[in-house]
């Protein structure tokens, strides 16, 4: 077993085909097939379910590829240390959509100062999928919502706890949450994520059935509709970060008692522990700054 074989099996796992993997590792498809067969022969087990298309890892294969990713990354970092170089390579990182437009980019700017030769491959998706990709080793870490199941071998640590705010067009200051939701059309955030479910739960708790005027699956669209004067909405505070002052009215929903939390999920043992510790620190720093900045613009 050598490093080249490990890189090849990872490429097949990621692309789902021998031909695509061949392009990644600069081999012919037949050479890729030979390497996989040789590796399986050495291990004494099949790594792929060859009855499925695209090719999929079986249980043994999932376990092997997780270890292979760590080995390949450790080898790359070891070479850098021995050669006197700085931490380099690619950090494969995931984030839910609501934190991908401000929190993550600003944290990566801070990371750039600490790890100037590191680059980033960011994947935006739903919490459940991102957690699954971290567990499988396809991502080094991800910023996901609280209350998502975290498998054994992973650890989740809080980064940002923020209130839900009720936002409305300008000129609605001084009204209670109930009045805003009763008098103005409602813009609903509709998608299969914990935040959307949390908003629906809170509305149900108040026994309010808002008069919906629009449904959309992106938070920037929700905020844009409120700014345009279409209606009222419930959003996480980060959604109104960096908005033009006076472009909408906002106030803490339920006096700030309703919050949502996002955190960093990663493997308990990782070859990228130094980089991930830096990422965790940068995320916490930027989250604190963003919360303070958004709070200033409430009203």
Automatic annotation (TrEMBL):
A Pfam family recorded for this sequence? LysR_substrate
Entry-linked SUPFAM superfamilies: Periplasmic binding protein-like II (SSF53850), Winged helix' DNA-binding domain (SSF46785)
Q: Using the record's annotation, list all stretches that form the HTH lysR-type domain.
A: 1-58
Q: Determine the domain of life of the protein's source.
A: Bacteria
Any idea which UniProt keywords this protein has? Answer: DNA-binding, Transcription, Transcription regulation
Record-level Gene Ontology MF annotations: DNA binding; DNA-binding transcription factor activity
Q: Which GO terms describe its cellular component?
A: protein-DNA complex
What is stated as this protein's family in its record?
Belongs to the LysR transcriptional regulatory family.
Report the protein name in the record: LysR family transcriptional regulator
| Species whose genome carries this gene | Roseinatronobacter bogoriensis subsp. barguzinensis
């Amino acid at each position: 077993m050598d490093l080249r074989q490990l890189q090849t099996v990872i490429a097949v796992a990621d692309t789902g085909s021998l031909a695509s993997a061949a392009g990644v590792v600069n081999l012919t498809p037949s050479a890729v097939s030979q390497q996989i067969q040789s590796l399986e022969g050495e291990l004494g087990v099949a790594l792929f379910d060859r009855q499925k298309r695209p090719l999929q890892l079986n249980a043994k294969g999932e376990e092997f590829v997780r270890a292979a990713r760590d080995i390949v990354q450790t080898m790359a970092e070891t070479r850098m240390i021995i050669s006197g170089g700085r931490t380099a390579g690619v950090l494969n990182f995931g984030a839910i959509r609501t934190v991908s437009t401000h929190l993550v980019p600003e944290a990566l700017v801070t990371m750039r100062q600490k790890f100037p030769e590191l680059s980033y491959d960011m994947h935006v998706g739903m919490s459940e999928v991102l957690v699954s990709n971290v567990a499988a080793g396809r991502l080094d870490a991800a910023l996901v919502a609280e209350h998502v199941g975290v498998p054994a071998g992973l650890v989740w640590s809080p980064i940002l706890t923020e209130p839900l705010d009720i936002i409305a067009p300008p000129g609605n200051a001084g009204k209670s949450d109930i009045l805003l939701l009763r008098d103005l059309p409602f813009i609903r955030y509709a998608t299969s994520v914990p935040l959307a479910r949390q908003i629906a739960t809170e509305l149900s708790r108040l026994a309010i059935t808002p008069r919906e005027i629009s449904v959309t699956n992106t938070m920037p669209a929700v905020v844009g509709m409120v700014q345009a004067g279409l209606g009222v909405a419930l959003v996480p505070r980060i959604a109104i970060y960096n908005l033009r002052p006076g472009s909408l009215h906002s106030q803490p929903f339920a006096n700030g008692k309703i919050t949502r939390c996002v955190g960093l999920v990663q493997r308990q043992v990782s070859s990228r522990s130094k980089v991930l510790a830096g990422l965790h620190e940068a995320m916490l720093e930027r989250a604190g700054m963003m919360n303070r900045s958004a709070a200033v613009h409430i009203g």
